[in-house]
């Protein structure tokens, strides 16, 4: 999915902020896109699978201690994300939204869809989410996440 996003950004010459031509900003986007696979995506998907799909397929709830361990793994990478990538900037690459922000927030919506509000006690993360939603448009954001946010209705 990352490869196709980069291809589309180049092919259709999207506005520069999505995949910046400035080498330092682009390196920041690339750094996040490389890091997120085993961190945000890996831990967020694991929580989603553990909390929603495994119980759905097996008909058995997960033992609480297993869920606690998976949740703690996600909390560790969320802290790293805030400290390493958000820091004190509005977006990952600086003052404008980029592909890195879109990819990050999409991955974080899986645990939210599973019922884990990871934004609740993280004001920096919550503010970043608000900025990303505003940048893409709240209605579009809601439409794009309608399925995952209603997954428990299966």
UniProtKB/TrEMBL annotation:
It comes from the Eukaryota. GO terms for cellular component: cytoplasm. One of its GO terms (biological process) is glutathione metabolic process. One of its GO terms (molecular function) is glutathione transferase activity. It catalyses: RX + glutathione = an S-substituted glutathione + a halide anion + H(+). The keyword GTP-binding does not apply. Residues 22-154 form the GST C-terminal domain. It is found in: Cytoplasm. Its EC number is 2.5.1.18. The keyword Cell membrane does not apply. It holds the Pfam family GST_C. Gene3D superfamilies: 1.20.1050.10. Keywords: Cytoplasm, Transferase. Belongs to the GST superfamily. Theta family. Homodimer. This is glutathione transferase. The lineage of its organism: Eukaryota, Metazoa, Chordata, Craniata, Vertebrata. The gene is Gstt1_1.
């Amino acid at each position: 999915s990352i490869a196709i996003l980069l291809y589309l950004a180049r092919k259709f010459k999207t506005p520069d902020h999505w995949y910046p031509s400035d080498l330092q900003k682009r390196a920041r986007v690339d750094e996040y896109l490389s890091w997120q696979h085993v961190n945000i995506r890996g831990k967020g998907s694991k929580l989603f699978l553990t909390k929603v799909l495994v119980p759905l397929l097996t008909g058995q709830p997960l033992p609480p201690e297993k869920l606690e361990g998976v949740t703690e793994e996600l909390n560790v990478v969320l802290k790293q994300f805030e400290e390493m990538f958000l820091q004190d900037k509005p977006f990952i690459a600086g003052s404008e939204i980029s592909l890195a922000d879109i990819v990050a927030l999409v991955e974080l919506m899986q645990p939210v869809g599973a019922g884990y509000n990871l934004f609740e006690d993280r004001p920096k993360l919550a503010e970043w989410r608000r900025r990303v939603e505003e940048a893409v448009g709240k209605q579009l954001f809601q439409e794009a996440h309608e399925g995952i946010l209603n997954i428990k209705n299966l």
